[in-house]
């Protein structure tokens, strides 16, 4: 069973598109209080399943090598990372050695996109979550060039 993710905007609104007939319907995600797949029956009788994604941005699964350097509260922590997902607002990674980071640390992350140009990206980010070794960060001070690189990368 294939489950289509429906990304909701900041107002909990999203769009469902039937792959069989192309009919589009606006959905209000605030009416649903479940993380389980939802069964949808289109007017054309096509039945499919959706899952509502409450993230503000689309998140792309990746496997990119990079490095981090903690810049606040001190800069004594550095290391190699594997970036597992990226969005316009942040990214998720795993450290290659024991994790010394904690929520609210400010880090500088450097990595190379696997796009046709091998684009170098350097961003400052704040640690927002750490779960089972996965570190989630929110971008801070993202310059226009990096914002465009990441934006184009997410479209590919």
Shape: elongated
How far is it from the N-terminal to the C-terminal residue, by CA? 25 Å
Radius of gyration: 18 Å
Number of strands: 11
Secondary structure: helix percent: under 10%
The proportion of strand residues reads: over 45%
Written as H for each helix and E for each strand, in order along the chain, the element string is: EEEEEEEEEEEH
Number of helices: 1
What is the topology, as strand order, of the major beta sheet?
6-7-8-11-10-9
Notes on the structure:
The chain has one helix and eleven strands; from the N terminus they run E-E-E-E-E-E-E-E-E-E-E-H. The protein is mainly beta. Strands 6-7-8-11-10-9 form a six-stranded antiparallel beta barrel. Strands 1-5-4 form a three-stranded mixed β-sheet, with no helix packed on it. It has a two-stranded antiparallel ribbon with strand order 2-3.
Top keywords for this entry?
single chain, mainly beta, 6-stranded antiparallel barrel, 3-stranded mixed beta sheet, elongated
Blueprint (SSEs and pairs):
Layout: E1 3-7, E2 13-17, E3 24-28, E4 38-41, E5 47-53, E6 60-72, E7 78-86, E8 90-95, E9 106-112, E10 120-131, E11 134-140, H1 144-155
Parallel strand pairs: 1-5
Antiparallel strand pairs: 2-3, 4-5, 6-7, 6-9, 7-8, 8-11, 9-10, 10-11
Describe the structure concisely.
The protein has about 160 residues and is mainly beta. It contains one helix and eleven strands.
